């Protein structure tokens, strides 16, 4: 049995290590962890060392939620739970860098924390999940239709009744509550318009920032050809036929590769909601 004295020393200050150094030290430790019996002192020691080496990943992820009302210490603690889950599931024999594998799990754990704690009015878990399904369906349909989807279209897409869709929309209103008086000033209080009519609109591009950050590590796991096709389709706005001509493959082959890559990305993103 491996003795404690043979185990690697923990880094003095892992947060000061460069990402490249942390990855280099983590690789042999993951192979060592896979060979140890879970629950033993040696296994726990190596596991804790990996947590310390990769804690910067949690700090980086948590910083994206700095503007929220919850204390940063709580967000880091929740993110660390996601890091531990990723360490336990990581297979060092697969051709993935650990940060690429772990980032979706860490972010998913933090998002679940906000999903479960940020409701201003308590609603049943069923309605919380319905809100998430409606939000995702609304995004998908808006891309297909070029406009916001109606209640009937959302209901047909999700296999729900329109009454269930309306219930989910009402439940979403309990997610955050703010006083409309915050939008009223002395100068326009008597202009005859409702406070909401005087408020500014939320920039829809803000939501894309979080989506792009979540998508980046997942894109890195795709093949070079899949990344190229996605870039040409959505970055250069080329048609599938144009992409096929540029890459020397058929339009049908482009369609299959694109559909497979997008389905994989969608599955991984939804798994971490």
From TrEMBL:
Entry keyword set: DNA-binding, Sigma factor, Transcription, Transcription regulation
Domain of life from the UniProt record: Bacteria
RNA polymerase sigma-70 domain boundaries: 74-87
Listed SUPFAM superfamilies: Sigma2 domain of RNA polymerase sigma factors, Sigma3 and sigma4 domains of RNA polymerase sigma factors
Record's keyword annotation contains Cell membrane: no
Pfam families noted in UniProt: Sigma70_r2, Sigma70_r3, Sigma70_r4
UniProt-listed PROSITE patterns: SIGMA70_1 (PS00715)
UniProt entry tagged with the keyword Transcription regulation: yes
UniProt name for this protein: SigB/SigF/SigG family RNA polymerase sigma factor
Organism: Streptacidiphilus alkalitolerans
């Amino acid at each position: 049995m491996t003795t404690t004295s043979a185990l690697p020393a923990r880094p003095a200050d892992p947060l000061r290590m460069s990402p490249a150094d942390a990855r280099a030290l983590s690789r042999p430790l993951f192979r060592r962890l896979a060979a140890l019996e879970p629950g033993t002192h040696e296994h726990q020691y190596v596991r804790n060392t990996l947590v310390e080496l990769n804690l910067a990943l949690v700090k980086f992820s948590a910083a994206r939620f700095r503007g929220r009302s919850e204390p940063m210490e709580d967000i880091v603690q929740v993110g660390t739970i996601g890091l531990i889950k990723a360490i336990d599931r990581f297979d060092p024999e697969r051709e993935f860098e650990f940060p690429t594998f772990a980032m979706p799990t860490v972010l998913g754990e933090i998002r679940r924390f906000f999903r479960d704690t940020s409701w201003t009015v308590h609603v049943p878990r069923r309605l919380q999940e319905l809100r998430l399904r409606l939000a995702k369906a609304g995004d998908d349909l808006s891309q297909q239709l070029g406009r916001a989807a109606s209640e009937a279209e959302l209901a047909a897409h999700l296999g729900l009744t329109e009454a269930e869709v309306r219930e989910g929309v009402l439940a979403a209103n309990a997610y955050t509550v703010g006083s409309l008086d915050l939008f009223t000033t002395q100068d326009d209080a008597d202009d005859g318009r409702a406070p909401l009519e005087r408020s500014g609109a939320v920039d829809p591009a803000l939501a894309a920032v979080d989506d792009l950050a979540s998508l980046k590590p997942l894109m890195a796991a795709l093949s070079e050809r899949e990344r190229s096709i996605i870039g040409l389709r959505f970055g250069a706005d080329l048609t599938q036929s144009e992409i096929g001509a540029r890459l020397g493959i058929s339009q049908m082959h482009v369609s299959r590769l694109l559909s497979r890559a997008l389905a994989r990305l969608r599955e991984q993103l939804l798994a971490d909601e």
